[in-house]
From TrEMBL:
Naturally occurring in which organism (per UniProt): Agromyces protaetiae
Keywords: Hydrolase, Metal-binding, Pyridine nucleotide biosynthesis
Pfam families per record: Isochorismatase
Protein name per the record: nicotinamidase
GO molecular function per UniProt: metal ion binding; nicotinamidase activity
EC number: 3.5.1.19
Protein's GO biological process: pyridine nucleotide biosynthetic process
Amino acid sequence: MTRALIIVDVQNDFTEGGALGVDGGAAVAAGVSTLLAKHRDAYDLVIASRDWHDADNDNGGHFAQGDAPDFVETWPEHCVAGSTGADYHPDLDTTGVDAHIKKGQGKPAYSAFEGVDDEGRTVSQLLDAHGATEVDVVGIATDYCVRASALDAIEHGRHVRVFTDLVAGVAPDSSERALAELAHAGAALAESSVLDVVAAQSGPEASA
């Protein structure tokens, strides 16, 4: 069994103080770093995605122009390529990340599966190359890009687990609905402490 971790859009513009900051975003960044520090060896592949929108156009209608954004399909400008807002949050340690995905270049893109790395590889291709059948998903925002990425992982035939303590959403109600939808689609909902349990069970004392 080969397992991958997908870290979705833990970026400055999606955390507190950013253009589309969500409550709890910075805590997600720190929590994911803690997870990687303790359990990087639990993963054969770690992928991190970022919104990476064009600066000189409305990105296929994704950026509201002229009218106020509806915060459903149109949004304020955010995560513009090369900007501080598009950078990973400083509390996210990316030293253990194997592949960096950029998405939304000139078009709307919610799922990490819609992006590519600098060599043009998709998330699906990376998972296939590593034989990854098990996927854990964390990141921002629960009700948008985490939801879309986890659903796509399921659609691509992976067994998906979402760590509910390492996601943050735009709104409580829509985040709750997103998690319910993911569970109905077949995703397992768990807290990241399950990795502590697995590590304890597989440690030296387990075979004593």
